[in-house]
Amino acid sequence: MKNDKIVLYMHAGSDNHGSEAIANCLCKLLPKPAILTTCRADQDALYSLPALCSEIIEEKNVDRNFWTHCFFYFRKKFLKDPESYMRYAYSGVIGKNLRKLNISIGGDNYCYENMLERLIMSNRMFHRAGAKTMLYGCSIEPELLNRPEIAADMKLYDAIVARESITYAALCQLGIKEKVFLCPDPAFLLETECLPLPDGWQEGKMVGINISPMIVENENKSGITLENYSELIRYIIENTDLHVALIPHVVWKGGDDRTTIAKLYEKFADTGRVLQIADASASQLKGYISRCRMFIGARTHATIAAYSSCVPTLVVGYSVKARGIAKDLFGTDENYVLPVQKLASREELINAFEWLLANEDRMRKHLQRIMPDYRKNAGEGKKVIENLL
């Protein structure tokens, strides 16, 4: 067994700058160099990770070849060997290349039904090969842990680092408290890189706004999310002297924030008070977000970039991660998180923004007071990793 490096796996690709931010900061926390396995090496080559990883290995995908797909379907269906697909996917880091510790990049992977089988099979496969596994920086809906196969999966990890207290409490109830730890998302440690500001940026007057196709998919009333964002921007333009910066944070095909941002920009471009920010690395996007007066975001790591920069922030959320992080920062998620599923009228985002505007100074001072210790705690996961080596 080779002990010189650590494998990071379940990385979705850096076109999701939240995934990039987690991997970026994890690489800097690790006591040894990291091999990153990724679904999309071409994406990772464009941003920050090549300079931080000792090697980037793209997972093999059975769906790229018909006969390969048929072979592994046969093994799964008739030979009852569901892990064979994962042995193939991670063939670059198992067998003679097996490392002692393999860290599953947590994030919200367990919030998506289509990810669960791969997560379970990967964990089991690495253990059968003789390695240790760790789930790092995760958010998990507590109800999911009632499923026996998920509970068994959690118990198989050698250590789990939850990034917020709702997930931490739910995991402890499984009877594995001794190997569950609470540390803020490593992306709270992400460095800030400030690119030149675009024409039209008004210092001290920018409201950063992020909207994603994913929150639109989670709305319960068709069209209500875009309607709320449109009404908010109209309200800002008509009732304040503030300007708006539309900032993407995920730009991959099928979930590109720029598609929804473009719809908003087209409505208000002629006002001269709305800007579109281009794609950039996670650290560079944080540079724009850090220079906003306030931020309203849908993507978790866009809001983490704002929180960690002490920018007063409203989250338009849809899952446990938004509630849990806000609760840990402020003691409650009320007023700090607006659940997209509860949007029913076109004025709700305006009402939430008015609360943010009235409380921005208090929130900024609170973040400035707690963030040094919060960021320090985000680095405590390094000790958990070292104890497994």
Task: Give the SSE layout.
Layout: E1 6-11, H1 17-29, E2 34-38, H2 41-44, E3 55-58, H3 66-77, H4 84-89, E4 101-107, H5 113-128, E5 132-138, H6 148-156, E6 159-162, H7 165-172, E7 180-182, E8 206-209, H8 213-217, H9 224-239, E9 243-246, H10 257-268, E10 274-276, H11 282-290, E11 294-297, H12 300-308, E12 313-317, H13 320-330, E13 337-339, H14 348-378, H15 381-388
Parallel strand pairs: 1-2, 1-4, 2-3, 4-5, 5-6, 6-7, 8-9, 8-11, 9-10, 11-12, 12-13
Counted by DSSP, the helix tally is 15
Percent of residues in β-strands: 15-25%
* SSE pattern, N- to C-terminal: EHEHEHHEHEHEHEEHHEHEHEHEHEHH
SSE-based structural type: alpha/beta
Mean pLDDT: 93
From the alpha carbons, calculate the radius of gyration and give it in angstroms: 21 Å
The count of domains is 2
Poorly predicted residue ranges: none
